[in-house]
């Protein structure tokens, strides 16, 4: 080995909070990790739980070789900033291979291929919500490269996971997921997450247009909000974190955020040895936390899995109610123009008869679950405008008529607060009083010094092929079309169908309707 060069293979060791070291030790056993996930009510970073996952090496170049020649659907959006969200209904779509994506992303002079109409300096591309079971349908062995069993979910791997590949500026509009909680592993590049707690829902101006089963969108572009139109957004509690893949840094770390995976490299000069800290992280997003996610590096790759929760049984009733109302009103308004209100993740609008079947199936499933479980936890509605207080609903024993003839729907008291699980291996995502500066500019010169800021098809979606929308317009026409779609603001002088729907399918309203439906029925 030449003088001054490093050894070829690092030795991975783990250090406990007191600094002790032991090879290949993860900070949490699966049972403890699951206990944290099922009880934690704020976003947090798990440190060094995935350092041995083969999926750590799944950068875009590697995936392009694995998926050689496979056509993938990319969502195309504009890098220019507007106060109006770029919903999926306002974007264009391209079918391309990962090789073609990487070529376009690196070579701005390229004028051929499926991305030829999109100037790399003006547009971003996003292959989002790509389920492993469809993407790797002929390479199922690769599912084992992802091991969510380390977090206490035996047998859970890539088969229950989703892949995300994007370019600089690619993002997901602010929304909350109706079902489950979320675990996210950043493989390549960095993504900035903007998160807001469930009690901020009134300040996020929720909407179900575009309609997508299991997603509630915000009318606000949270990174460039129109505060004149949405003044209540000032009250929202923004939490931010930049999620990045494994990084090697100096031995010194900030007290309270030391991470436990170390990389030892033996240097060939003077027999000296250098030990560095490597950060390997998984983001936990609790149930019903709003999130806006943006790619802030030239290429980003992420893997996630939505974890089912007990509360999902009632949430499916709420979603069935929402589907019925949205489809009924929007198809009556304009039967021929579903693309304007139906998200591309939905194949087509469903009939009223089908939606009735969905609702009855959801209610039946809820009661089936009640028969096998004494206590079902739900989010009980608070009508005074305060945040929703988590209570216990004893469905089997307390849904009965009392002496006054009324039914007792919500009973129980708050559980005693448990000791904080946070420490060097579990870092909370901090709240920010102001929005962090945008990193879209000068991203290539970044030194990557933001592990966790020191200040700080979802599994419920229909599993189906998305409709192909390949655009062959000239670049100017495409740019004008997207700009037009994303800058129109509704008139304030009349009540539209969408205005009515936003009230009828507000999450608080559908929760109340679902509870009333269940309250009127018995086991």
Automatic annotation (TrEMBL):
Compositional bias per record (Polar residues), positions renumbered to this chain: 403-413
SMART domains assigned: JmjC (SM00558)
Keywords: Cytoplasm
Name of the protein this chain belongs to: HSPB1-associated protein 1
Domain JmjC: 124-322
PANTHER family recorded: HSPB1-ASSOCIATED PROTEIN 1, HYPOXIA-INDUCIBLE FACTOR 1 ALPHA INHIBITOR-RELATED
InterPro entries noted in UniProt: Cupin_8, HSPB1-associated_protein_1, JmjC_dom, RmlC-like_jellyroll
